[in-house]
């Protein structure tokens, strides 16, 4: 099982870039790590506990970053990470993870006018340029599937959900 931890506690100047050394931990060691993080001893990690962990390495997490972490680790969608979920996640992390910075970069590419949301026209322009897709019906269907709150704009949160599928 692999868990990524920093042996020195050092941080990088940009908190979206994480550079650290990789250590292999067994299930018992990961369980002990969970217990250390579980400050209130309720057997689950809350957003506050995860945020506190990140602050110990000088990272001030945003709501979106915490959403991203919990989307991956909170399999029951309760707003808390159980010890079982934590161990399972650390036992077999995805081989290739997309970083938060990469998602932001991709989102900015789609959000041509920089207003914090992607319109159907912006999506059409990017897909035409990057894939040659010019079928408006197909783009409309993709946009509608991603715009889950049906406000005619894709937020960063909706974009992240789409990229996870």
UniProtKB/TrEMBL annotation:
Gene Ontology cellular-component annotations: myosin II complex
Pfam short name (any one): EF-hand_7
SMART domains recorded: EFh
UniProt entry tagged with the keyword DNA damage: no
Any GO molecular function: calcium ion binding
Signal peptide: none
InterPro entries: CALM/Myosin/TropC-like, EF-hand-dom_pair, EF_Hand_1_Ca_BS, EF_hand_dom
Keywords assigned by UniProt, alphabetized: Calcium, Repeat
Keyword Repeat attached: yes
EF-hand domain ranges (all copies): 25-60, 61-96, 98-133, 134-165
Matches recorded under PANTHER family: CALMODULIN LIKE 3, MYOSIN LIGHT CHAIN 1, 3
Name listed for the protein in its UniProt record: EF-hand domain-containing protein
Organism: Diploscapter pachys
């Amino acid at each position: 099982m692999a868990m990524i931890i920093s042996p020195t506690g050092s941080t990088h100047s940009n908190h979206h870039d994480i550079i650290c050394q990789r250590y292999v931990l067994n299930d018992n060691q990961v369980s002990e790590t969970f217990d250390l993080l579980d400050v209130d001893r309720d057997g689950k990690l809350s957003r506050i506990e995860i945020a506190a962990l990140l602050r110990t390495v000088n990272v001030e997490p945003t709501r979106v970053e915490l959403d991203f972490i919990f989307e991956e680790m909170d399999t029951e969608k309760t707003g808390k990470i159980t010890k079982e979920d934590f161990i399972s996640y650390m036992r077999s992390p995805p081989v290739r993870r997309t970083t938060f910075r990469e998602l932001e970069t991709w989102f900015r590419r789609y959000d041509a006018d920089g207003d914090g949301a992607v319109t159907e026209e912006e999506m059409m322009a990017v897909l035409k340029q990057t894939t040659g897709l010019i079928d408006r019906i197909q783009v409309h269907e993709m946009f509608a599937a991603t715009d889950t709150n049906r406000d005619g704009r894709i937020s960063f949160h909706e974009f992240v959900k789409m990229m996870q599928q």
